Amino acid sequence: MGDEIDIKLAIKWSGNEYEIEIGPNETVADLKASIYSKTRVKPERQKLMGLKGQKGITVNDETQINQLALRPGLKIMMMGSKEEDISNIDLDPSEIPNVLNDFDIEDDLNEVAIHNREEYLAKIERRVKEYKVTVFNEPREGKKLLVLDIDYTLFDHRSTAEHASQLMRPYLHEFLTRSYENYDIVIWSATGMKWIEVKMRELGVTNNPNYKIAFFLDSLAMISVHTQKYGNINVKPLGVIWGKFPQYSSKNTIMFDDIRSNFLMNPQNGLRIKSFREAYKNRDKDKELYYLARYLTNIAQMDDLSTLDHNDWHKKL
């Protein structure tokens, strides 16, 4: 590196921040190697969000650090998992075994009644009072509400790619554009708000001219509940939204998530979407959002969405 002064970069990953020092003539590949030494996330698993090149420069592993558009105080968010955490990543989605968060709600009275338990309703009330929502676009009169997860619903967050758009679920923007005609749209992810902001910006969702997002919710809006079979799990209670925005209710709300347990508190309002994994294999054949846009249009004029069995949504196309 000679007399060149090293550049200090802050890498945020998994709730921690790592300082990396790297020479200006080193490459993005060198940066990933340095990140690996501190996080044990292999370079091919790393996705560096918001890393942009100077004008006219496309960022890849061979790009030199001095060719990047780095402003003072920039924090680079990384997505990626250690090998021991992704032992099932190379399985076909249909072959991936059910895990804790993917269980089907059983016909057990203790489990089904969980959404009426006073202690959990009290938690929701606290979230309504304490959780702060930043509204980007005001709710529209007469519109229903669509609540969307991100990971594996709109985005394959574990596969590798040079840019987040390569991991975007097919028909995403067409789906959101069509849905926006009848529904206000909210993004609710079990991650932190910074991650949501980065992902939505990288996917071109935040400021898309064809539709508007009402607001984001993150993991802090979730509550924990106890189930007899699965122990403590975190869920996304729609009552948090309904308490803050009374124009929405069980009658006009639908939530998409690839994890069924996320709507344990609102079983009649949840639609379990097929997980979108291994984008490089499936992006040319996945049409889930294409058909779900049609489904949302078909049910948009119904007075009470909670009367529907969303498990049979394909039959209503």
From TrEMBL:
One of its GO terms (biological process) is regulation of proteasome assembly. CDD domains: Ubl_UBLCP1. Pfam families: NIF, ubiquitin. Residues 139-299 form the FCP1 homology domain. Residues 5-85 form the Ubiquitin-like domain. It comes from the Eukaryota. The keyword Hydrolase applies. GO terms for cellular component: nucleus. Its EC number is 3.1.3.16. It catalyses: O-phospho-L-threonyl-[protein] + H2O = L-threonyl-[protein] + phosphate; O-phospho-L-seryl-[protein] + H2O = L-seryl-[protein] + phosphate. Its cofactor is Mg(2+). The keyword Lipid biosynthesis does not apply. GO terms for molecular function: metal ion binding; protein serine/threonine phosphatase activity. SMART domains: CPDc, UBQ. It is found in: Nucleus. Keywords: Hydrolase, Magnesium, Metal-binding, Nucleus, Protein phosphatase. This is Ubiquitin-like domain-containing CTD phosphatase 1.
